[in-house]
Design a protein that fits this description.
heterodimer; A: mainly beta; six-stranded mixed sheet; globular; B: 117 residues; mainly beta; four-stranded antiparallel sheet
């Protein structure tokens, strides 16, 4: 059974810092990996999706990398802003492409 | 786009009553929809996979008689929490896939917060 772990569980940083969120998964036979943002009491916003054959994806200040063989992904946020404060969820899709397993999330607080 | 709408966004009910949550794909036909549950400060846990016109597939530990899922059309799936109790209070989120595009991309609704008194 796939297990997804995110470290740290919570993170508080001053505005402007570059930061890295970590995600690890136990079964490397994945179809893709996705990073989501969730604001309190809200649904999910997809940030980046990395197919199993890819190594990284970038969108604005966000960069996600994938090392499938070691079961790891990182989400890099450059020049963090208070508006980045949210919970970031990592999710992996199984090889069959029909099941998404989520990590526990990292709660990020960016202080002005 | 690929818009998935959930209704209601928030519901409060008395213990013992049933609550129905709707999940609609607004601009596409969704042959498969997924229902997740999220407890406070925890991650999303898949409850069941719903395919149009057939019975839902429930994950281990999810009571199918308590969480009734109906996917009667290509744009609507419903989750009914029967005889709700305070421990059912949670955030329920649905997602849907577009068969004509990459089957593995799930589009998420905004979620429904259920509070059972």
């Amino acid at each position: 059974k796939q297990e997804v772990t995110q470290i740290p569980a919570a993170l508080s940083v001053p505005e402007g810092e570059n930061l890295v969120l970590n995600c690890s998964f136990t079964d490397s036979a994945i179809y893709n990996l996705q990073w989501f943002r969730q604001d309190p009491g809200k649904g999910l916003t997809s940030l980046l999706l990395i197919q199993s054959s890819q190594r990284e994806q970038t969108s604005g200040r966000l960069n996600a990398s994938l090392d499938k063989s070691s079961g790891r992904s990182t989400l890099y946020i450059a020049a963090s802003q208070p508006g980045d404060s949210a919970t970031y969820l990592c999710a992996v899709m199984n090889n069959a492409g029909n099941m998404l397993t989520f990590g526990g999330g990292t709660r990020l607080m960016v202080k002005p | 786009g690929a818009v998935v709408s959930q209704h209601p966004s928030w519901v409060i009910c008395k213990s013992g009553t049933s609550v129905k949550i709707e999940c609609r794909s607004l601009d596409f036909q969704a042959t498969t929809m997924f229902w997740y549950r999220q407890f406070p400060k925890q991650s999303l846990m898949l409850m069941a996979t719903s395919n149009e016109g057939s019975k839902a597939t429930y994950e281990q530990g999810v009571e199918k008689d308590k969480f009734l899922i109906n996917h009667a059309s290509l744009t609507l799936s419903t989750l009914t929490v029967t005889s709700a109790h305070p421990e059912d209070s949670s955030f329920y989120i649905c997602s849907a896939t577009r068969p004509e595009r990459a089957k593995n991309i799930q589009y998420f609704g905004a979620g429904t917060r259920l509070s059972v008194l």
